[in-house]
Each structure stands twice: as structure tokens, then as C-alpha cells.
Amino acid sequence: MTMKATDDETTVLDESAALTAAACLFHGFSDPSRLTIVRHLALGEHRVVDLTDHLGLAQSTVSKHLACLKDCGLVTSRPEGRASMWSLNHTDTVIELLSAAERLLAATGDAVTLCPNFGASTLVDAS
Predict the structure, then answer these.
(1) Residue 4 to residue 123: CA distance in whole angstroms
(2) What residues contact residue 122 under an 8 Å CB cut-off, 6+ apart?
(3) CA dist., res. 77 & res. 66, Å (int)
(4) Cα 86 to Cα 96: distance, rounded to the nearest angstrom
(5) By CB neighbour count within 10 A (0-12 exposed, 13-18 middle, 19+ buried), where does 98 fall?
(6) Residues 51-68: what's their mean pLDDT?
(7) What is the pTM of this model?
(8) CA distances (Å), 98 to each of 33, 46, 76, in order?
(9) Fewer Cβ neighbours under 10 Å: the N or C end of the chain?
């Protein structure tokens, strides 16, 4: 016996899937090192060695974060000689999102940093 979902059930499932995708996107941005990498890539292409030099992070750490961002569809790479050039996908949209986040943080007085669940004290240094 096949059961068909009602329109209301389909809407709830669609909304749930969209919210799950949004939570996953924000989780991809949840590490300060990944955000720093994204900000650097918003300026243009970089090699891993360039990012390690700019950020003072280990090559393995930068590579791990780039892999995460790539899995999220936020960055891409292309070969150039023996290196890979990394770039940001959807640069304008990502810049708009980061700008909106900065405006929201300014509006809330950065109160989120004091949040006991997700504030600054809960961040784990991944570098």
C-alpha cells in the first residue's frame, strides 16, 4: 500500500530539509580559521602555501579546512604546475552573507560571544 503525503506534510518536510541545509552551511563557516580562509579567498586565488604564510597555520590545518569548504561547495581548486590554486565559489554571495553577519553582530553588540551554548568559550582551537 502506497501512502501519499499531504501538501502540509510535504511543506513541513521541505522546510525541514531547507533548515537542515542552512544549519550545515553555517556549520561550514563555524570555525574561525575557515572564515579567515574564506575572507582571503574573497580577495582572489591562493595556493595552500600562500594561505599558510598569510594565516600562520600549519599546511595540514589549511588543507583540512579547504577540504571542508570544498565539500560544502564553497571553494574549488585548479591545478597550476605542481600546486593547486584555490578560489572561492559564489564570491559575491559569500561576501554579502559575511557582510550581513557583520551587520547582525553589530546590531546585537556581539552578544553571541557570551552565549553559553555557542559563544567564544565553546570554540575549540583547530590549528
Answers:
(1) 44
(2) 115, 116
(3) 9
(4) 20
(5) middle
(6) 95
(7) 0.79
(8) 14, 19, 19
(9) N
Q: How far apart are CA 74 and CA 79, in angstroms?
A: 17
How many whole angstroms separate alpha carbon 5 and alpha carbon 64? 41
Q: At what angle do helices 32-41 and 48-55 cross, to 10 degrees?
A: 120
pLDDT at 6: 61
CA angle 42, 48, 52 (to 5 degrees): 90
Beta bridge partners, 83, equal 80
Segment holding 78, helix H or strand E? strand 75-80
d(CA 48, CA 76): 12
Tens digits of residue pLDDT in 24-56: 998 888 899 999 999 999 999 999 999 999 999
pLDDT band at 127 (very low <50, low <70, confident <90, very high): very low
Q: Do the Cβ atoms of 117 and 104 come closer than 8 Å?
A: no
- What nine digits make up the cell of 73? 561547495
